[in-house]
């Protein structure tokens, strides 16, 4: 395994870890519905985004071709629907990592 392959592995794992943390946060939000009122739409959106992030994590770690476009879609949805400046900055940072040429090449994209 070359140094570029190792760097690409690390970048993909970094994206997977951050998405995992974001998904865990969304699940905590959904679980908090047991203790405080959460609008039905907010609960549904949190669960759908968490499920999408979980699917992306599995796909990224297995280097599936479908995982890259799904990751971009989930990041855009997360930034637009959930909102917040910090969340937007994290999503943009993850997208920049995913757009790196070696990472795109790993998923069969030019």
Give a verbal description of the structure.
It contains five helices and no strands. The chain is mainly α and 110 residues long. Helix 1 (3-31) packs antiparallel against helix 2 (40-61), helix 2 (40-61) runs antiparallel to helix 3 and helix 3 packs antiparallel against helix 4 (85-98). The chain is elongated, with a radius of gyration of 15 Å. It starts with a helix and ends with a helix.
| Structural Rg | 15 Å
Q: What average pLDDT do the residues reach?
A: 92
Total number of helical segments?
5
Outline type: elongated
Helix/strand/pairing category: mainly alpha
Question: What are the secondary-structure elements, in order, as H or E?
Answer: HHHHH
Q: Characterize the main sheet.
A: none
List unreliable stretches of 5+ residues.
Answer: none
What share of residues is helical?
over 70%
**Total E-strand runs:** 0
Portion in beta strands: under 5%
Structural domain count: 1
User: How far apart lie the N and C ends?
Assistant: 21 Å
Provide the descriptors you would attach to this structure in a database record:
mainly alpha; 110 residues
Topology:
Elements: H1 3-31, H2 40-61, H3 67-82, H4 85-98, H5 101-106
Question: Could you give a short description of this structure?
Answer:
The protein has 110 residues and is mainly α.
